[in-house]
Amino acid sequence: MSESDARGPMRVLVQFIKDWNTSSSRLAMIADPPSSDDPDALASIAAVVSALCARDEVAVPSWVHRHQASAPFVLGGTSYDSRYGRWQRERAPDAASLTVSVWTSFASRCRPCCQ
Question: Which segments within 1-115 are labelled E, that is strand?
Fold first, then answer.
């Protein structure tokens, strides 16, 4: 999950969400903590995992709580202080925003297409 992708860092997270939505072994997907030299990347992964776990009533792994962003930001490139950034923060799952200071609305709203 923490592998890089030449198409950009969001691609890996988006693919993880797609895989999560179709997986029958979600706990195995999140059992091991991700590795990266970038604390914000780790916080982003933790925020997405936290939001998906909350959405799907899966136990949040303990490693999620060890990752904190260097400064609060909105995942996906939106400016933290923009109107849309504020809108995202207001609607983000509490678990993600309180745990890692990364606001993510798309992970909690991305539903499998077959639901």
Answer: 73-74, 102-103
